[in-house]
Design goal:
This protein has 185 residues and is mainly α. The chain is built from six helices and no strands.
Length: 185
């Protein structure tokens, strides 16, 4: 149940509690009045039962009202706590994204510098990046609006200028320095 479920239940319970207390009070006043006037035992039993039911109903409703109020308070505290945890998690995620962005920017710059050392043309640099991202020659051709043969030829030029044998060596060239040996982790 949400807090609003608890709070919407409270007015009804309060009204029911007041009704039971009013019924019990009226029955008590009537019972006292009837006893002063001298009434029959059966009438006293009936009004005594009404009085008892009124107080019993009031007690049960009061108990339920206290429980609902306690549950509403607990739900509200839990909601505040969860909101705090969510805010902390969001801040941590944003911090992590910032760090990752900085690292990715640094990696991108390092890759670009290496491409410059290999003296790749702008088109070859773009093909090299797309190869590192794992795109096929056909996907590279579609992304660059060239034929697949052109994309394949530019990929070969990247490998030749880099002194590498293919796509796997290109990826390994950059990944080798990114992954620390087990003993350094």
């Amino acid at each position: 149940m949400s807090e609003s479920d608890f709070t919407s239940e409270r007015p009804l319970l309060t009204l029911t509690l007041v009704a039971f207390l009013l019924m019990a009070s009226l029955a008590a006043v009537d019972l006292v009045s009837d006893l002063r006037e001298g009434t029959t035992v059966s009438h006293v039993v009936v009004e005594g039962t009404i009085l008892l039911v009124g107080f019993l109903g009031a007690a049960l409703v009061a108990r339920k009202l206290f429980r609902v109020t306690a549950l509403a308070r607990t739900a509200s505290e839990e909601a505040r706590s969860l909101a705090g945890e969510l805010a902390k998690s969001a801040a941590e995620a944003e911090r992590w994204r910032g760090e990752a962005r900085d690292l990715m920017r640094g990696l991108s710059e390092a890759i670009d510098e290496q491409f410059d050392r290999w003296q790749l043309s702008p088109a070859e640099k773009e093909v090299g990046l797309l190869l590192l991202k794992g795109l096929s020659h056909r996907e590279i051709a579609e992304a660059r609006s060239v034929t697949e043969a052109t994309a394949r030829q530019q990929a070969r030029a990247v490998y030749k200028k880099a002194g590498l044998s293919g796509r796997h060596d290109l990826a390994a060239f950059f990944l080798e320095d990114l992954i620390l040996p087990v003993e350094e982790r």
